[in-house]
Specification:
Number of strands: 21
Structural class: alpha/beta
Number of helices: 16
């Protein structure tokens, strides 16, 4: 019989992805002893199956598309991409799915790593195999999410791709069906179409990227179709089978589509189903609601940070939450009862509500921060949307011939600040942080006139947006 070992820490972190790593970094910086529990690879989904591999696949695609917009360079890049080289480069960015470097980083900050599946067994107590970890101050659940597959008969036998297979595949399928219209679906459709797949994109709704301004999805859909993808909106999958290696998809409209692989990018669910939540009065498999310090509602010691709380399912936003949570845990551990928890305070993840930035790395890129026009109106703000054609900016013309894009800022007419900004067009991902600063800082429109954009850059769109607001 194996003897159980009990070890006490100030903080126990469940999950060693970017979110868990950042919680541990902040608690260790505050001098708190910290244990980190991970059942897979240290570095998490982002490092191995999401952000890094997907962007490594997309970067050559976007670079080639940009090059083809330039006279004198266009003819030099007309050939197909070297898919094998791109896949190998992607493997390099995932460290060939080995986490030695990330483990070394954890060691460097003085956090203790426990490999295995961690489960709560009661208040402040986590079991990892035969080891029991107790937390004097906090347990932080940073376990993220998993892909959700639809309830279709026989789907498991088909062997469908989720985001993990789509970002880690070692060869290019000749034909790929992508089901979904969100970020994963559009980015992976962009990547695999350019790498040589014939992509069919099936979207249940009316358009793509429905959490952004409508024109974002319209421009991305138009570009995907121009690249050769078959984009079908208002279409659902009725059945999927695989025979002799061929995937056969039947849609609700009766169409029959054959492919080599099928990717379902149709949603995420929290990884909380086997965490022992029932031992602390919570529902297994549920999202974990939190306050702005990321402490689980009704608890004095349990925190839920990153995707698992459903506030903003983005790596950078989860890392932001982790910094807030780490600071709050440290403050409470030191005996502080009066936290800086007001809007934009050191212990409040206010940006989750007001200023979440996101970039979709398609061609064209789509980038947004804050509220869309519809969201701002629904929230009760008196607002006006100001739109500018990005091709009217000198920097866009220099960026590439035939540049096509659009910018929108949503202006609060009572406070004369920005509630949200959206850019769609080649290269706009690098514009969004200026918009994020304007939204977070609640910079008055009158002051923005003094933020002079350099000429000739695409960022001159800020001047065009201000002029459009002034003149209309």
């Amino acid at each position: 019989m194996t003897e159980t070992e009990t070890i006490a820490y100030d903080v126990v972190v469940l999950g060693a992805g970017p979110v868990g790593e950042n919680v541990a970094d902040r608690t260790r910086a505050a001098g708190l002893t910290t244990a980190v529990v991970e059942s897979e690879l240290v570095g998490g989904e982002c490092s191995y199956w999401a952000c890094m591999p997907s962007k490594a696949l997309l970067r050559p695609v976007i670079a080639q598309a940009d090059a083809r917009r330039l006279p004198g360079l266009r003819q030099a890049v007309q050939g197909p991409l070297d898919a094998d080289a791109i896949l190998a480069h992607r493997n390099y960015f995932t460290s060939d799915w080995k986490d030695d470097g990330q483990v070394g980083w954890l060691d460097g900050i003085g956090a203790d790593l426990y490999r295995g599946h961690g489960r709560l067994t009661g208040p402040r107590t986590v079991a990892v195999g035969d080891t029991v970890l107790t937390a004097r101050h906090a347990v932080a659940v940073c376990t993220g999410t998993r892909a959700v597959l639809p309830d279709l008969p026989g789907l498991a036998e088909v062997g469908p791709w989720t985001s993990r297979e789509a970002t880690s595949a070692q060869s290019v399928p000749g034909r790929l069906v992508v089901v979904g219209g969100g970020v994963v679906a559009t980015e992976m459709a962009t990547a695999w179409q350019a790498l040589g797949s014939q992509v069919t994109l099936l979207v249940r709704g009316k358009g793509l990227l429905n959490r952004m301004e409508p024109f974002a999805g319209e421009l991305v859909a138009e570009a995907l179709a121009a690249a050769g993808a078959d984009v079908r909106t208002g279409t659902s999958v009725k059945s999927v089978t695989r025979t002799d290696g061929t995937v056969v998809v039947v849609t609700d409209t009766g169409d029959r589509i054959e492919a080599d692989e099928i990717l379902f990018a149709t949603g995420r669910a929290p990884r909380t189903d086997d965490l022992g939540l029932d031992t602390v009065g919570l529902e297994p498999g549920s999202w974990l609601p939190v306050d702005d310090s990321l402490r689980v509602t009704g608890s004095e010691w349990l925190y839920a940070v990153g995707d698992v709380n459903q506030r903003a399912l983005l790596t950078h936003q989860g890392k932001y939450q982790a910094r807030i949570a780490g600071a709050a845990i440290a403050a409470r551990a030191s005996g502080t009862t009066d936290l800086d928890a007001g809007p934009w305070g050191a212990h409040a993840a206010t940006a989750d509500h007001a200023a979440v930035p996101q970039v979709v790395f398609t061609d064209p890129e789509a980038a947004a921060v804050g509220l869309s026009l519809a969201e701002a109106e629904q929230a009760g703000h008196r607002v006006r949307a100001v739109d500018v054609d990005l091709s009217s900016v000198a920097g866009a013309g220099l960026y590439g011939e035939g540049y096509k894009g659009r910018a929108r800022m949503v202006v609060d007419l009572e406070e004369e600040i920005l509630r949200g900004v959206t850019f769609v067009g080649p290269g706009v991902g690098e514009l969004i942080h200026s918009a994020t600063v304007a939204v977070v800082g609640q910079v008055p429109i009158a002051r923005l006139w003094h933020a002079v954009p350099s000429y000739p850059t695409i960022s001159e769109v800020w001047l065009r947006l201000l002029e459009a607001f002034r003149d209309n």
